[in-house]
Design goal:
Layout (H helix, E strand, L loop, with lengths): L2 H18 L1 H20 L6 H27 L6 H10 L1 H29 L2 H35 L14
């Protein structure tokens, strides 16, 4: 198996986990979506205490998302530091591919979508654009990124003996 193919197992698992647990992932992510839509669009009208409290709620929802997806990811698996060290030693090129994949996603969805496109809009439209973009990014790009990072840890720290021979997605 090539290192590129091995690296592709993580986004495959990410997509499988995201779609299989869509209600959980999108449901928790919509808390941040709604909060961002409101606080970005009407930031001047929101009491700072309410804005701060809403950030705490978003943080709690994101922590819950990470904890629940982590539990899904580790179900039936044994994780060991030594497995991670071995994986990093033997498959460091695969980990480099993960960095490349995530860097491309960051460039497209953060730099291009959030900063470049926003700069092309008239100033009067930028705040609304950002609010809508963040509303859409929370249950999609941001949630997928959380799941992806968990997938990287899952792949890296899973005992080699428990890895499937094929790169199929778990059922």
């Amino acid at each position: 198996m090539s290192e590129f193919t091995l690296a592709l197992e993580v986004p495959r698992w990410t997509w499988w986990c995201y779609t299989r647990h869509l209600g959980l992932v999108v449901g928790l992510s919509l808390i941040a979506s709604v909060q961002r839509l409101i606080t970005v669009n009407w930031s001047e009208d929101i009491n700072p205490v309410v804005a701060t409290a809403s950030e705490v709620v978003v943080l709690a929802a994101r922590i819950a998302l990470v904890v629940l997806v982590w539990r899904i990811a580790v179900a039936g698996r044994t994780f060991r530091w030594s497995a991670g060290r071995e994986f990093a030693r033997r498959h460091w090129r695969s980990l480099v591919w993960q960095v490349v994949f995530l860097a491309v996603a960051f460039a497209v969805f953060e730099v291009l979508a959030e900063h470049v496109v926003s700069a092309l809009l008239p100033p009067s439209a930028r705040q609304t654009y950002l609010a809508v973009l963040l509303f859409l990014k929370n249950p999609t790009i941001i949630a997928l990124t959380f799941v992806w990072w968990i997938g990287i840890v899952r792949q890296t720290f899973t005992d080699v003996s428990e890895r499937p021979v094929e790169s199929g997605v778990p059922s």
